[in-house]
Amino acid sequence: MYAVETQELRKDFAGFRAVDGVDLRLEADRVHALVGPNGAGKTSLFNLLTGFLRPTSGTVLLFGENVTGWRPDQIAKRGVARSFQITSLFEELSVIEHVALALQSRTALGYGFWRDGAVLRRFEAPARVLLDEVGLAGLADRPARALPYGQKRALELALALALEPRLLLLDEPTAGMSAEDVHRTIALVARLREGRTIVLVEHNMGVVGRLADNVVVLQQGRVIAQGPYDTVRADPAVIAAYLGQVDA
Question: The whole model's pTM is what?
Fold first, then answer.
């Protein structure tokens, strides 16, 4: 069974085809990277997989289940979590409050910002475990606004992990990071891959080369190559489209 499978997946926007007949078969428990030039359709494909966009045509299956046209919350309940290219946190909430709320959301309590503080404290211990996993244990009481960019991205990963996903989709997890933060994120994702499938959109080919078991190259909404990094980077069509221009 594949973690992600699409069949003739298409998405049109007012006459522009962002995703054009994409057929994917991404194996479970592996790291897959989606790469390609700007405008290749990577984020649109992510949004189709997670329900933020409805396909114009085609099919999306996650772990063998047809989820075509499902809402994001319905897909999330099937064990799918994602991060976004632009961070979106509550600036005044502390780091541990963010994670406790994410853990609470998986229960019958849902997202209850207004609840008594004792409710959130129920989730404090598991929240600290997740923060330790992403390297933020020492910053639990710091407000999100006080975190540098790289640590905000790490907090977003903790929020995604709080959902206990089988499938984790990361949209440009190292974008805008310093070299030190990039290396830290590579190590973090390498740890997180155990027991789950990870699909990432990434422009930094050094990151792709170190993390991805399988690389899918998109150009103008179509898959033009797929396979191991070393094979894909040597493909003449890929070199012409993208990798030869930005390889690191």
Answer: 0.84
